[in-house]
Amino acid sequence: MERSSGIFKRVDWGIILIYSLLVIFGWINIYAAVYNEDYGVIFDISQRYGKQFLWISISILLIIIIFIIDARAYEFLSYPIFIFALLLLVAVLLFGKEVNGARSWFEFGGIRLQPAEFTKVATALAVSRFMSVHDFRINRMTDLIKVAALIFLPAALIILQNDTGSALVYIAFVIVLYREGLSPWYLILGFIFILLFIGSLLASLYAVFFVLPILAILVFHFMYRNIRMTMIGIVMLVLLVLLLVINGYFFHYDKLKILVTGILVSLVILAYPAFVKRIKHYWLIAAVLVAAMAFTFSVEYIFNNVLEKHQRTRINVVLGLEDDPKGVGYNINQSKIAIGSGGFSGKGFLQGTQTKFDFVPEQDTDFIYCTVGEEWGFLGTSMVLILFGALLIRIVVLAERQRSKMNRIYGYCVASILFFHVAVNVGMTIGLTPVIGIPLPFFSYGGSSLWSFTILLFILLRLDTTRMDNF
């Protein structure tokens, strides 16, 4: 009794309050999104809003079980849980039910479970335990490869299920690695290749030409923090570009010529400060830039032969390269219409016309944010973002106050996964990111989603109750 009372006193009630508000507001919006006048009672389990109430009730039971279990068990069982999760991913490939082209579900008497949702919890526990061992070094290549394998093995199995959206969530673990000391150069290189990928898709080789030298300057600046040398690099870039323009170089379209010139200009910009300051990393940076050129040439092949047709179309729609208002772009267009029509204060509860007449597909799951925008307006969507922002900030505060390294790392895993889901889900409903089909945490309809996020969050709260016991 004394032990239970101690847990009760130590639990972070601020997070529980935010969680409760998100879950309840999500439930109300699910009711609005699929409202049926013939089944108006919100607890009617023949309708999705009634089933969501059932999922919420089971979530409360899961929370109780999480707090009953000894906190040390989550560390001790982290690897067995991870292995079990991987086995479930393999099993669903063999025996799962295919829904919307993805074989990601087990079905038991009308109830569907998606193992990929729960695998995020298992991966967070396994990564936290592995990175918390005393001899782990984040910038030691062998350790980095091992932790990368822990992260990307489940992602690879999920990709085999044809569920790219759930697999992309694992990118969020990069934030955790960075917090634990991963060199920022991995993030910079990732950003470089993303820019090159987008630049190549936009078919703007001139943009690629300018991006490479500018990135060369940024690389040098952030590595050596030498303002004078950075300014010299900028001046050299301007002079070289002017010289090329004056000579009429760009009047002759030649992909190879433009890309090679971009690399050469970048190397020239780096050459002067490199040799003057005797920088030993010059050739490493040069190799990265050459690799960037090779990557740029491969973008077209990757885009056309690796990505699925619907994925290519979604990316093209977001980049403005393709207009498909009746096809892949339909969801985004209708979502933006719904959110825009809500104005400042919304049309009112159950008054959303876009929602009522089912113009927006998946309006109670992946696109539930547009239901909020139409019926609750700018005030409602702002409140949702404020709640998520407050939750993420509070989770980071909890993570930073942990005395146990594993607890801290796990806290950042929770924050990173939630942040990725919120950013991408909200981004795709307003047309800023491609539609990849991931739910809004605690908000979207679905038992697997709600249960997995609940388990993910409340394991952190359970670990936090023992923070004073860890030295």
Briefly, what is this?
The chain is mainly alpha-helical. Helices cover 70% and strands 3% of the residues.
* Strand order in the largest sheet: 1-2-3
Given the C-alpha coordinates, what overall shape results?
globular
How is the main sheet built?
A: 3 strands, antiparallel
Global Rg: 25 Å
Distance between the termini: 25 Å
Count of domains:
2
The low-confidence runs, each spanning 5 or more residues with pLDDT under 50, are none
- Output mean pLDDT: 79
Number of strands: 3
Specify the number of helices: 20
| Strand and helix order | HHHHHEEEHHHHHHHHHHHHHHH
What does this structure look like?
It is a single chain. The chain is mainly α and about 475 residues long. It has 2 domains: about 1-185 and about 330-470, no CATH class; about 205-315, no CATH class. It is about 70% helix and about 5% strand. The protein contains 20 helices and 3 strands. It has helices spanning about 1-10, 15-35, 50-70, 70-75, 80-95, 115-130, 140-160, 165-170, 175-180, 185-200, 205-225, 225-245, 255-275, 280-305, 310-320, 330-340, 355, 370-400, 405-430, 445-465; strands at about 95-100, 100-110, 110-115. A 3-stranded antiparallel beta sheet has the order 1-2-3, with helices on one face. It is globular.
